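Bug #77: duplicate submission created two jobs. Keeping one. Sequence:
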Amino acid sequence: MLATIGYISNATEHLKKGDIENIVKDAILYNKKHGITGILYFANGKFLQFIEGDRAEIEALYQKLSKDSRHNDFVKFHDADISERAFGEWDMAIRKSEDYKASELELFNDIFNIYKLKVYKTAEKNRVKIKTLIDIFRKPAVNL
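Kept job's structure:
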């Protein structure tokens, strides 16, 4: 079954300059081997990632990622079965804050605050925000 997971996390002091590019390069190799696609957003010491693929494969990857010492404070904010991939053309794309307009960055911060601070709104409002975020991420991205 095809599924998607979205999570947020914080970078730790173990994250060094150049690690983001290495993370993406390693992700591309791993994801190609396991049929996973997705996108990684990093800004201000925060990660937001969507991964998609076979349910068992992305669950295994999520468990692996949650043990990576370069980030912590994982919160899974999206977990759904899907009929098609949103990021099917990218084994793993990366986005940074300079790729977005201010209004789009506000949406990322809103998602981060809703789930990190547990300031939940209605489930429907959160679904709309997540869908909008996925649509924003689907715009052309840098793929290493």
